[in-house]
Each structure stands twice: as C-alpha cells, then as structure tokens.
Amino acid sequence: MRELVSLLESDAExxxxxxxxxxxxxRMGSTGIGRGIAIPYYRFEALSRPRLAFGRAPKGIDxxxxxxxxxxxxxxxxxxxxxxxxxxxxxxxxxxAQWFKTPGVTQRLCALETPEDLLxxxxxxxx
Length: 127
Prior knowledge:
This protein is of the alpha/beta class. The chain has five helices and five strands; from the N terminus they run H-H-E-E-E-E-E-H-H-H. The chain has one domain (2-124): Mannitol-specific EII, Chain A, CATH 3.40.930. A hairpin with a 2-residue loop joins strand 1 (32-34) and strand 2.
C-alpha cells in the first residue's frame, strides 16, 4: 500500500495519512474483489479530485480477497471527502469494478510493460 501511495504526488504528511487510512480501511474488510485484483480506496478532505494509482505484485499477495486467491493487480482510488465537482470518484470505481469482471483482464494487466501501455489499455476500455 505504501508503494501505491508513493506513486502519487503528495507531501510526506498527506502520504502518511493516506497510507494509515487505507490500511485502517483494509483491516475493516479487504478490497480484494477476486480474480487477482484489489481496489483499495478512500476519501480525503485534502484532495480536490480523484487520484488513481496502479501497481502489480508478480508473485501475488495474500490480500484476503473475496475468492481467497492472491492479488496481483492493485488499482488504488482516492477521492475528495465530499462530492467531487465533476462527480468522477463513484462512477470511476463502478466502471473499474465492471471492467474487472471481464475474462482475461488480470492477464492483460499483468502483461503490461510500461505506464504508457496501461494508459493505452485504459483508453481502449473507455476508462
């Protein structure tokens, strides 16, 4: 989780707040949705727009996913504490969750080689 938070451009204090809050949220219930994917998420007053970070764990991590399998791909979604002006947070989470039900999506994500490949894939999928 700390690695995902480090991908975002934020100061050290906010990064630590994000990490602590995300871990507290995970202890209440895993965001591992199955098929090797987790969507850790949280809302913060300090954010004015949603932020998304993607990471992979090639060997898999026991993330207490709903299907009991390891998680290989992580999409961390952070959003404003209150409704974001463009209403992006919840629709984005919903679209991601729907996309992750697509057969083969985990394999496609695990095969990505560059950040540009991820952006291209997200664009192809209309995300």
